[in-house]
Amino acid sequence: MRLRSLAIVAVLAAPVVASAHPPPSPPAPTPSTACGFAIDVHTIDADSHEALPFVAVYVDGVYVGETDEHGHVIAGGQCAGARQIKAERGDYLVGERTVEVRRSRSLELELTVIPAEVVEIEDEAPAPVALGAATTLRGAALDRTRGRGLSEALAAVPGVTQLRSGTAMAKPIVRGQFGRRLLLLVDGLRHRAQEWGLDHAPEIDPFTADAITVVRGAAGVAYGPDAIGGAVVVEPPPLRRTPGWGGDGFLVGTGNGAGGGGGARLQWVPEAAPAWSVQLEGSGQRTAAAWAPDYPIDNTGSRQWAAGATIGYRRGDASYRVGYRRYDAELGVCSCLRLESSEDLRALLTRDRPIGVEAYQADFAIERPSQAVVHDTVTARAEWPVADGLLTAHYGFQHDRRREFDVVRSAVTAAQFDFRLFTHDLAVTYAHRLVHLSDHLHLRGSVGAVGMFADHAYGGLPLVPAYDGAGVGAFVIERLLGRDFELEAGVRYDHLTRTAPIERDDYLRLVRSGQLAMDACPLGTETASCRSRFHALSATLGGLRQLTSALALKLELATAARVPTTDEQYLNGTAPSFPVLGLGKPDLGVETTYGATATATYQGERLAAEVSGFANYIADYIAFGPAIDADGQPIVDVLIRGTFPRFVTGAVDALYWGGDAGVTARPWPWLELAGQVAMVRARDRTHDRYLPLVPADRLHGAIALTRAEFGGLRDVRLELDATAVARQDRVDPLADLAPPPAGYVVVGGELAATLPTSREPIRLALSGANLTSTRHREYTSLNRYFVDQPGWQLSLRLTARFDSPTSAR
Fold this sequence. Notes:
By secondary structure, this protein is mainly beta. The chain has 6 helices and 45 strands. Helix content is 4%, strand content 56%. The protein has a 22-stranded antiparallel barrel.
């Protein structure tokens, strides 16, 4: 909810608050009645009902103290009888109230801002504290990720790993959940793209973000039914409010996957039209194929660029904003993923190097197989203050095109797979102002409705059919705020319909493989028309208890539902970046999770820590894994285009549980110690076995030395870190193509400093990953069947911020 913070008061007649030690007032006469009572005074803004700190409080003219950051002060030693309470702060009218004291009591005073000549500063209210486990990257922590993909940028968060495949990209895994169960929200809009490939990285440029929040745990009420495993919320920087210009930028160069890139953002508010604001941004990157420790990972070069523009307008308390962004990437797919026969596959699973590695190169060329992706986003957002609240309307249009190029005859130039997804999203939300229930109880919340329409067009070899879908939803969330506790409850309902025409031959293949009953969809002479309807209900109940100013406990209970994606229903084939033959299951139902998350946080001067545990029971969990024949052996299909392991989709009941923790300590100003640990356990309760693709236990530690100045440089930081990943032994050996890879330890580091410049700071950093070039494979990566992970990496990064000389933000 929008706040109004009124800062500089230029009124000569306004009362000026006394110093911290005002002149002593004569003591009140000693009454003959009982004494020793306490009055808990709480001061709030009469307009916004937000707590007011730094308010001088008097009882019967005697100064008792100044309110703290929560607007509280205790007036102890009070005697029974009538007492006059007065509260003063320079930018507010004096608040006075007479109360009858018969016992210790609490009192809330509403102060009204002085309605005179003021300089008004508008800003967004801080988001409510998450009642589950959530971590936000911003500032210096986000700057260190410049030039990396989204999943790499999030890898520093406890409980987050990466799912890699045969391209230079990856997608994040949060507590064992990824892709379909991990919602991506960019500027308040759900990111909609192709989801059928395990390797399909989000078409998101992290440079667009001013902050990235990772919500670990079901968040279906707040973000929608796909947030069954969590959410990644990408927030762009707010538009500039003051006349002038400013911005930031970065340059980065890399050694392994040689290349580099850069980006810049410019914000401008014209002096002649201060109600208008403009933001322009762009970034680009070009890299060659990377090296494993002792051989190149052939054909994994990449080319990416992104650009966007946003225009905002403010009129009074209302604001309007429109924007456009484009992401464009061309990604090579490792040559190692293509096999000619089942003998090649069996031989590869026993080798420590890909077949034909002698011909591999680490160059910039992007050859077949490859993929090309374009993602366009248009947004329009408006906010109006209405009826004691704020009404927000948000519309988004997205166009996602993915083309995949397989190895074919040289005369063929077109893509073998061409996907186009068009989506429209509309959300309307009303957030009411803080409601005053009592001296220490307040209520804040919101209600909203959403709508969606999707049209998917496909052309090419059999894989995923065209379809159209439409959905609506509604939600309500309310939070009760107390002095040292918060309670939140919410509920959401979503309805989705989807229709897909499936080619007759593809339909019959699904029937023969046992993925679909013959009469599941009306079958015509050429196509079968499969129509699905889904109802999804999500609910949450959470609480926070602030035990001390530094220590808080949080508990969240949640249920969330997820509608199956189109690939889970209709997938029927293989693709260059998808080195398996995948089969969907059109008659899948809604996946429902019932979960609990308990979190403890500590935020002290020298120590910050978070410990979180979770458990999720998922009914009708949609699993995707290797198909096993009657003899317990993986099924391998030999097609014209090569040999592929068969992976099938099915519904089981699953149980996920585990925990993660992070701690940062600064025993001395020049030393910082950090550590993280994460573990996830997952069982298929239907068949009483382990689930595949669950991250192994991992431990991360770092030590950093800092100096305010050194050798003419400022803010010098030297950091060394190490990550240890265990072997994933909790697997079903009969449900995988190869045993899990061995555990490993990788070492990294960074040396960074701010250069001495006349005005704007320029930050230079040299960072390294896997400095010992340890040979390893990641269990959650499909690459592990074919190739090692990249070896050493060095990168040089420069970041800078700039502002117009005569303005301040």
